[in-house]
Amino acid sequence: MAQRGNADALTRRAVTEHQLMHDRGRSIQSLKRLIWLSSAIEGLHTAQTRTLSTDDSRWRSQPGKDHKRALETLLSDMYRPHLTGDGEK
């Protein structure tokens, strides 16, 4: 009977070690993924810098339809289809 208990203990130990190595592998893989993502984001540029001239009529307060048109122009500049992947221009 002592040998059977010993075998069970060894089996439990082997399973525990296997789980430990599996968890360690997952942790290493997660760390590699985090390092890769960090390096990928490092070179990412999300916006272009533009200078705004003060005489640009689109930015001045305009009454009625002209104001609406200026707002639509601003929004279309912000949400260009080639940035969203729609492919329509």
Description:
By secondary structure, this protein is mostly helical. The chain has two domains: about 1-40; about 55-89, no CATH class. The chain has three helices and no strands. The chain has helices at about 1-40, 65-80, 80-85. The longest helix has about 40 residues, at about 1-40. The mean pLDDT is about 75.
Structure keywords:
2 domains, secreted, PTH/PTH-rel, PTH-rel, cleavage on pair of basic residues, Parathyroid hormone-related protein
Q: What is the tally of beta strands?
A: 0
Q: What is the averaged pLDDT score?
A: 74
Radius of gyration from CA coordinates: 30 Å
Number of helices: 3
Helix/strand-derived class? mainly alpha
**Could you give the order of the helices and strands?**
HHH
- Taking pLDDT < 50 over at least 5 consecutive residues as the criterion, the unreliable ranges are none
**β-strand amount:** under 5%
GO biological process, one term: bone mineralization
Keywords: Cleavage on pair of basic residues, Hormone, Secreted
Subcellular location: Secreted
Main location: secreted
